């Protein structure tokens, strides 16, 4: 009880302050949205519930901080260690062309994970009610199928491109409407849209490969200046744009505020619904951008796009560990998507059976994640 | 709790909407049943209904029981399919080399338990988020299965050489009712006692609603949470064994198909409860609704592709009607 004085005013007017105080923010989220209700009901008596949920943290804030640093270092060490091991084991691993190849192969997963990260940021980390976009991968599948079908039907890029982007936008809007308007949990709303998208994709393609060749797709697949594939440029440009948007603008700050502590964000006058909707729209558009990248890599749309969903979730969660404050960030996701790409590529180059890849991914993540605070906060 | 405040403002209107919302699942159920009965003549025959129960319902229902428990505790288990697959692998692996049937069943269940134990130690021990922990388990078990099955080769059993009990579990009947229905019923009763009648069940709901408060109230949060994931894996093991006796084979990664289906069913089931809590009865009704829709659309002649769209829309509709309540929990 001696910590009563230390518990700060939970509802701060400035989102910047909310964001800049991760430990208390984190345990605001630990008590989770559930206790927000309690606080709402308790009104003036809010302090008592805050103490309930904050108390264990106050004791161990320093140890958590140390372990955070340790975890961040260990994750970077794991990354560097894996790179060193593969570069020694396979001389070609760090060659210019192979590195570009890896980045190119990581682009589709990375772009989808950017969308997922945005949704994680705005939705908070609660396991069930937190933000998640299960429709990301099937959105990509449907967008790719629509693009390929339009090209097959004799349409040009000028029709196919806007329609495809619009598809992603509409899927994002449906998600946003269900989550913000109908107040369905993101997990379920996007589960339903995932089914709908996957179904429409199957109806459209009859579960077959639809080949697509068009000037735009050829241009995307081509190699640009410095022998760098255009996909790499697009991937990095999108990453750069999103990093600026989410980590350096008021909009991004609001997203973190909304996801970190929803009630505080409302009290601070943030239009929560608008910002949460925006994050699902971004995720929807990321889906259709990823669709265009995969179309140009594979020369058409192929069934089974939905299978990479869990990898997307994994990459976005893994990105959290890289970030300094243990929150989802676009830059962290960029690094983790490249990490997974290098891991898979290294296995191929060193002739390790591909059967190991999934297991090593899972194991590495557990190893790296074990002490991370983002991973801990949602447990209880 | 937020609803307590709003209902104080307009009690009459609130009560009417509440009544409609509470019954949205039942209403949807009756509507779907009636519509399919009219549209597909073969739907309302005894044989078809039994086949729905056997082919679509039982396995998903068993897995959903575990998922209900996990979601009640405020977590999620993405590795349900993995536990079922590992159980199937161990079970079929032993049966195929003519080991005793009982030993094979025990091996299957312990295979599933090992998945549950890993989940429990990650979530309750190291306190990793359930989402991430079970996702990692899923990835690791994918590798384990690929390594054990030479990259995903199914293991088929040769008919005729199998023990009697194998057929009894798969096709056997007792008093004219298939064995698998008994198993589902018994498990459902056990789970509703655990979840709704026992102290443990109350701890589970406390953990799901307010983990911090549960901890301060002296509930053993870690062991409760650990037990939840172990029980979930155990029933998935049962489902895995039933799946393998039905198809007489081990097919890698076959359990994953149930994952999103069961999550959907559990949450459709929450619309039955006045506070939006998961319940065993609601979950079973949710699974039944989804399996009936699958079967009915097949009879009408819609292909698998449209079934997915329809299932998505159905989940959407039910959740939208009860949406105002499902959000209250947050």
Shape of chain B: globular
Low-confidence stretches of chain B: 1-8, 324-330
The overall number of domains of chain B is 1
As an assembly, this protein is heterodimer
Secondary-structure element order of chain A, as H and E? Answer: HHHHHHHHEHHHHHEHHHH
Strand order of the largest sheet of chain B: 1-4
Going by CATH, the architecture of chain A would be Orthogonal Bundle
Assess the beta-strand content of chain A as a share of residues.
under 5%
What is the third-level CATH name, the topology of chain A? Answer: ABC transporter involved in vitamin B12 uptake, BtuC
Structural class of chain B: mainly alpha
Sheet with the most strands: spatial strand order of chain A: 1-2
Under the CATH scheme, which architecture of chain B would be assigned?
Orthogonal Bundle
CATH class categorisation of chain B: Mainly Alpha
The chain pair forming the largest interface, with residue counts per chain, is: A-B, 66 and 67 residues
Characterization of the model:
Chain A has 380 residues and is mainly alpha-helical. Chain A has helices at 15-19, 22-30, 32-42, 46-89, 96-123, 136-152, 157-181, 186-205, 215-221, 230-247, 250-260, 262-267, 272-298, 309-322, 330-349, 355-369, 373-377, and strands at residues 210-211, 300-301. Chain A has one domain (73-377): ABC transporter involved in vitamin B12 uptake, BtuC. Chain A is 74% helix and 1% strand. Chain A has a two-stranded antiparallel sheet with strand order 1-2. The longest helix of chain A has 44 residues, at 46-89. Residues 1-60 and 373-380 of chain A have low confidence and may be disordered. Chain B has one domain (26-320): Orthogonal Bundle (ABC transporter involved in vitamin B12 uptake, BtuC). Chain B is mainly α. Chain B has helices spanning 2-9, 11-22, 24-39, 46-72, 80-96, 101-125, 130-148, 164-171, 179-197, 199-209, 211-216, 221-247, 258-270, 280-300, 304-321, 323-326; strands spanning 155-156, 173-174, 177-178, 249-250. At the A-B interface, helix 3, helix 8, helix 14, helix 16 and helix 17 of A face helix 1, helix 7, helix 11, helix 13 and helix 15 of B.
